[in-house]
Specification:
Elements (H helix, E strand, L loop, with lengths): L4 E5 L16 H12 L4 E3 L28 H6 L22 H21 L3 H11 L3 H13 L11 H4 L3 H10 L1 H27 L3 E6 L8 H5 L14 E5 L9 E6 L3 H6 L3 H13 L2 E4 L7 E6 L9 E4 L3 H11 L4 E3 L7 H10 L3 E4 H4 L18 E4 L8 H6 L3 H10 L8 H11 L4 E5 H4 L29 H13 L6 H9 L1
Parallel strand pairs: 1-2, 1-12, 2-3, 3-6, 6-9, 10-11, 11-12
Antiparallel strand pairs: 4-5, 4-7, 7-8
Helix pairs in contact: 3-8, 5-8, 11-12, 17-19
Length: 508
């Protein structure tokens, strides 16, 4: 990672546009231009994988396949797979500041089906798909999983009506493959669209000196192609139902703890394979990202294991994770990688030691640090080191305005004094100024905070279902004043991207 750099956290879904959700189209390229204009180095996003129950990018049908909601229709039309009349008169976004996932799930599919038909009818379509399949060795299993899942009314894997298919009996697999070949091809082609558009956008960002920070959830969903095809890697019963599930123990934020529902890995089985799936997964991640944030890093030192049938996280127990052995293997196979460890939450000595052993930068959250008016928090800036990535908050935290509104009078007074907030200075600007002034090598600002958005612009409230992941910005939100402020603090605190200067020097 660059020394003294900065960037913006903004998921693709939150970009403005007319397709009901942010896509890889013009608004995404405009966002790269904005990052360049303001001298940023990084664009951080959330997982690009498919979303399932609850619309969360951290609950995916696949650890690798992409979210086809992000495919841009205008780009498909430019390639001749659609005409504008196929989509321009459709109302994908009754509220342009919020994603209606149910609506876009229903409305985008017919348009994508037309694009798939256009692609397969083109002279080069079949060859392009065949070439893509050679590169994407995961594609066949994923496309079949999604086609079969749709055939059973989008039920979770464990609820499919054909037990023989759940168990992947060869004769039954062949039967469904023949019956659902068109749907399987739909999922293959839409994955081709996804990766072609995303890699073109990433190339544009890289060509302009912007690196992409991706996000890898530690767990996969119980309703996933991995559980279907590789059940030996998880603690499952004979029906592929999780014997144990993931979550967090009760704490000051929740009396019940957090029940995530993801199946727990059988780490002994992973170790016997020299962590081959993890090496593969991380390698795939670096095909589409420049840096990789690994979510819930503590889960690799030890994790909270909850009985699979429980409806509360209370009865879980701490179990040991793979620890340093996993990351030593990854390093031996893939070399030194720019990984960021999401080390938030309950971090004990064991988790701290793993972070030290790997030397990955961890994360610091300014909002957390300012809650303790005694100044003793590990997240307060005077306790930072340079090898951290600093945020005011992440997608799981309140936006600055909502956070500040909920502080006590004592906490507000402490915050104002600590960050040396000036008279009449907006709290979002004071907090971002304090963030960029920290000793941390990298500072990342959430887009909602740069735009001075209110509390309802929050992206996610952990341990709640529904109403999350919906926020979108409007194009007019990003004013010249907002850009000027970001550019100013980036230069003032020596975080300016030197890429443009380097390019000019190379021309001489």
């Amino acid at each position: 990672m660059e020394k003294r750099a900065s960037g913006v956290l903004m998921h693709i879904t939150s970009l403005p546009g007319s397709f009901g959700i942010g896509t890889f189209g013009k608004s995404a390229y405009d966002f790269v231009d904005f990052l360049v204009e303001t001298d940023q180095s990084y664009w951080q996003i959330l997982p690009l994988t498919t979303t399932s129950y609850g619309d969360s990018p951290y609950q995916s049908f696949s650890a690798v396949a992409g979210n086809t909601h992000l495919i841009d229709f205008d780009l498909l039309a430019k390639e001749g797979y659609l005409t504008e009349t196929d989509y321009v008169n459709l109302n994908f976004a009754p509220n342009p500041e919020s994603v209606d996932y149910e609506l876009i799930f229903e409305m985008r599919r017919p348009v994508l089906e037309k694009a798939v038909a256009g692609f397969l009818a083109s002279k080069s379509g079949l060859k392009k798909l065949a070439d893509f399949e050679k590169e994407a060795d995961w594609l066949r299993d994923f496309a079949e999983f999604m086609a079969f899942k749709e055939h059973f009314g989008n039920k979770a894997l464990q609820e499919w009506d054909d037990v023989a298919l759940i168990q992947r009996e060869p004769e039954v697999l062949d039967k469904y493959r023949k019956e659902l070949v068109d749907v399987i091809n739909y999922h293959k082609v839409t994955q081709y669209f996804f990766f072609k558009q995303w890699l073109a956008l990433k190339a544009y960002a890289n060509e302009n000196g912007i690196e992409i920070i991706g996000d890898m959830p530690i767990y996969v969903s119980a309703d996933s192609v991995e559980v279907w095809t590789m059940p030996e890697l998880f603690k499952l019963d004979e029906d592929k139902k999780p014997i144990y599930i993931a979550g967090c123990p009760p704490d000051s934020f929740s009396d019940e703890g957090q029940l995530w529902g993801n199946p727990i890995y059988d780490w002994d089985a992973h170790e016997k394979t020299s962590f081959a799936w993890w090496v593969y997964r991380i390698r795939e991640g670096f095909k589409i990202y420049d840096l990789l944030r690994i979510d819930h890093f503590k889960g690799f030192s030890d994790f909270w294991e909850i009985p699979g049938e429980d409806t509360s996280a209370k009865n879980g127990e701490w179990q040991s994770g793979p620890g340093r052995a996993l990351f030593d293997t990854v390093k031996a196979e893939l070399g030194d990688l720019p990984i960021i460890a999401e080390n938030l939450g309950y971090i004990d000595e064991k988790a701290e030691q793993l972070l030290t052993d790997t030397a990955f930068p961890g994360m610091k959250i300014l909002e957390f640090g300012l809650l303790d008016t005694e100044g003793q928090s590990i997240d307060i800036p005077h306790n930072y080191t340079s090898n951290v990535v600093a945020y005011t908050g992440t997608h799981d935290n309140e936006v600055i305005n909502g956070w500040y509104e909920n502080l006590t009078a004592e906490q507000k007074a402490f915050t104002d004094a600590y960050i040396r907030r000036q008279k009449d200075e907006p709290i979002n600007e004071a907090m971002l100024r304090a963030l960029f002034a920290t000793v941390s090598d990298v500072a990342i600002v959430c887009m909602q905070d740069l735009l001075d958005k209110p509390a309802d612009a929050r992206m996610n409230i952990p341990n709640t279902l529904g109403g999350n992941w919906q926020w979108r910005m409007l194009a007019e939100d990003l004013t010249a004043k907002r850009k000027a402020f970001l550019k100013e603090i980036t230069a003032l605190y020596a975080r300016k991207n030197t890429f443009k200067k380097s390019k000019e020097e190379l021309k001489k």
